[in-house]
Amino acid sequence: xxxxxxxxxxxxxxxxxxxxxxxxxxxxxxxxxxxxxxxxxxxxxxxxxxxxxxxxxxxxxxxxxxxxxxxxxxxxxxxxxxxxxxxxxxxxxxxxxxxxxxxxxxxxxxxxxxxxxxxxxxxxxxxxxxxxxxxxxxxxxxxxxxxxxxxxxxxxxxxxxxxxxxxxxxxxxxxxxxxxxxxxxxxxxxxxxxxxxxxxxxxxxxxxxxxxxxxxxxxxxxxxxxxxxxxxxxxxxxxxxxxxxxxxxxxxxxxxxxxxxxxxxxxxxxxxxxxxxxxxxxxxxxxxxxxxxxxxxxxxxxxxxxxxxxxxxxxxxxxxxxxxxxxxxxxxxxxxxxxxxxxxxxxxxxxxxxxxxxxxxxx
Length: 363
What we know:
Helix content is about 10%, strand content about 25%. By secondary structure, it is mainly β. Among the domains are: about 80-190, Elongation Factor Tu (Ef-tu), domain 3 (Beta Barrel); about 200-280 and about 355-360, no CATH class.
C-alpha cells in the first residue's frame, strides 16, 4: 500500500509524512490533488489481492466481493480459527495446509489429522500445542454451514513432523465429508478451566483441606514456581522446606511445630503448627493462632439414691447445703439413659467428624 505523493497532495494531512487528498479552490489559487497511476494501481491490487486470495473470481458487477472475502478469511458461515483444505487421507500426513479425519464417517473418527501450517500459510503450531482433553473442535465447510461436525478433544495432540494428530470423540453434526481440496474452517473452543491451575490461585498461609484418600485426588505439586507444605510432621512431602520439627505430648494433647525454610517465601523463618499431626480443629477466633486444648464445660452431676430427692455433687465437693451420696466413691461409668443409646467415650471430647489432610501454600 502507498499514500498519494504528488506535488499537489495535502501535505501531512494525517500526520507527518502522511499526505492526503484535497479539493481545489480556484478563487484562492489552490490546486486540487493530482492523481497518480501508481497510487491507484497499489490500491487496486491491495483490494483485488484480498478477494482473489479468498478464492473469489473478480466480478465487475458485484460490489460486495470485498465483504465476502473478509467473511471467508474469518471463517465464512462459522466463527473461524483457521482455514485448511480437505484431504481424503485417513492416515498419516494429510498434506501441507490440509485437514483430514481417520475415518470416512465423521461419527466413527477418533483422530483429526491437521497440518501445522494452514492453507493461508499461517503457522498454528503454538496454538495447536495448547489443545487439551475437554476442548471442543468444530470442523465446517467454509461455504456450506450445512456440512459441519463437532468433536470433543480427548487428549493432547501428537506432534508428527509438520502435522498434529489430535484424539477426539464425535459429538454431532451433518453433511458427511466434503470433496478433496474443499476449504474447511477448523475452530477450537478451549475449556474455560483448561489452563487454570487451581493450586496457583490459593493465597499464602491458608490451610487447604484435601481428601487425598479418594482415588484421583492428588496433593499440590512440588515442582512449580509456587510451593505448598503438608501440615504433617516427618512427611517426605516437606523435604527441604521445613526444619526444626518438634512433636511433644501424647494424644490427645500432641503439640507439633516446624519452621518454614524456603528462600523467596514471604513466610520463610515462621513457625507453624502441624495440625494434621496434632489433629487440631480449626476454630474462629479474634486471636489468629490461639492454641486451645480440648475441654469439657464445668458442671455438677445430679445423683439419685433409693428414690430420694436428687442430690447435687461435684468432683471435689457438694453443692452448698446438700450432702453427697458418697464423697469417697467416684462416678466412673457412663451408662445409657434408656433413650439415646450407650455413651461413646474416648480420650478427648469431639464432634462427629471425618479426617482430611491439610496443606498450606508458603510461596
